[in-house]
Amino acid sequence: MSKINKTRCWVALFFILFSLxxxxxxxxxxxxxxxxxxxxxKNVTISDPGIERIISPIRQxxxxxxNRVIAFSVEPxxxxxxxxxxxxxxxxxxxxxxxxxxxxxxxxxGALVSYTNYGGLRSALPQGEITVGKIFELMPFENExxxxxxxxxxxxQFANVxxxxxxxxxxxxxxxxxxxxxSAVKVDGTPVDPEKSYWxxxxxxxxxxxxxxxxxxxxxxxxxxGLKIRDVIIRNLEKQYKxxxxxxxxxxxxxxxx
Amino acid sequence: xxxxxxSSRRKFIKNTMFAGSxxxxxxxxxxxxxxTTQIRLTILHTNDMHCHLDPFPDTSPEYGGRGGMxxxxxxxxxxxxxxxxxxxxxxxxxxxxxPYFNFYKGKLIFxxxxxxxxxxxxxxxxxxxxxxxxxxxxxxYARFPLxxxxxxxxxxxxxxxxxxxxxxxxxxxxxxxYGLGIEPxxxxxxxxxxxxxxxxxxxxxxxxxxxxxxxxxxxxxxCLSHLGLQYEDDKISDLTLAPQTRYTDLIIGGHTxxxxxxxxxxxxxxxxxxxxxxxxxxxxxxxxxxxxFDRVKQQKFAVAxxxxx
Lengths: 258, 309
Known about the structure:
Structural class of chain A: alpha+beta
Structural class of chain B: alpha/beta
Number of helices of chain B: 9
Oligomer: heterodimer
CATH superfamily of the domain at 43-57 and 108-287 in chain B: Metallo-dependent phosphatases
Order of helices and strands of chain B: HHEHEHHEHEEEEHEHEEEEH
Helix content of chain A: 25-40%
Number of helices of chain A: 7
Strand content of chain B: 15-25%
Shape of chain A: extended
Strand order of the largest sheet of chain A: 6-3-10-5-11
CATH architecture of the domain at 43-57 and 108-287 in chain B: 4-Layer Sandwich
CATH class of the domain at 43-57 and 108-287 in chain B: Alpha Beta
């Protein structure tokens, strides 16, 4: 091998090593960007058949369950403040269910208040046939009914929060609102005694301090029912429907402006 | 860092000129070509999908007929064909919103996201709807990590199951991702967050980006955030976080279900551009951001070797 060839060989070898090593220590400098937010609407004509294949049988199964009619409502049920047919319907159903549960478990409730938080009701119910799917839309969360026994002073605190919010979903209680405060709070027709104890039926979400409802934390007593609120609604509606009853709930001035 | 880019480029040009004079020696041509390569990295992202597997029903006044995961997957596949050098990310709240979630919990959504090729997601407040175990029990179905840096799950069912940060290598580009979750108070039932701790998102962000930049030498740093785009009060949000960061290039957000035409372009605390984007909710939108990188051979090494010649 001639000297020149040898040198060439070394040079070539170096370049091989050089390119290999430098390849590892390359630096990447961000030099630009562009962007596009794309709507997934009717202009998108491509669809992934693999995804559709996964969803399709599940959709059919769920649709079958969701499309079952369980009630007939005489009017649309829409949440509103200070009270509404929808909030009253759910709150009163919770009262009834809690009483049934307590009777079974031999728990003496006495005065009972119910609370379903306004934000937890996620949609309206239409006039006419109501399907299981509509109740899932109304109450998608897996919340359970919980009974908490709290002091009257805490119940008054609760009534004040309801007043501040301009109304909410309550049952078994009457709250007058004056200048954003609860001015008259009555349970079973009697003013709430701050020293007495009261049972409240609500969701585990609220009972555990959800929506910053701190007055329910550290109750004197707490009973978990294990009943999902959505299941309770579906079961009660279906029972009514099978007896030929129509769904109807009225406003009755339980929360009012003075 | 702007200054750094400039000086690197200057050195790079010098080096290329020097290299150019040696072209005659053969084998160098490819080196020069490699030096001028531009690499495109595509980031696709979603947020707040809320188990909207199907398009919205035609009766939906706002979104009738729009959305749906089969079409979303079709879009993603199209972009993947255009540029396989791609990351697909989600900014949280995959859970809750349709009966698919009530019946299948995390299983179905995770399996579909696997199929779509998600690389990472962060944790939204609704991921806690069935408690910490509602995430932990279903993570086995996800073939992508959940990245969150400001929830401390020590001692809970999620202990060790999520990542504080995650790095990816895409054609030599190192991408670092960290995740920020929203303050659970008032949004998550305390019982469902029991045992976990919420850490300050700003402090956490600064700590994470420092690790990703200094220790792990990432070329691009992305924050997957479920803090929300912006608020009327002084609650921390993506737009208030962005100017406080030093090394973050992009915040992919969620929670506020914000439809925006294009990302916000802000300056971070180092004076560099930081993008903040969000893609609506319910599979109604796909965010796409492409970063272009210049590949530069490292100068110091090359000079030392050539001097030996």
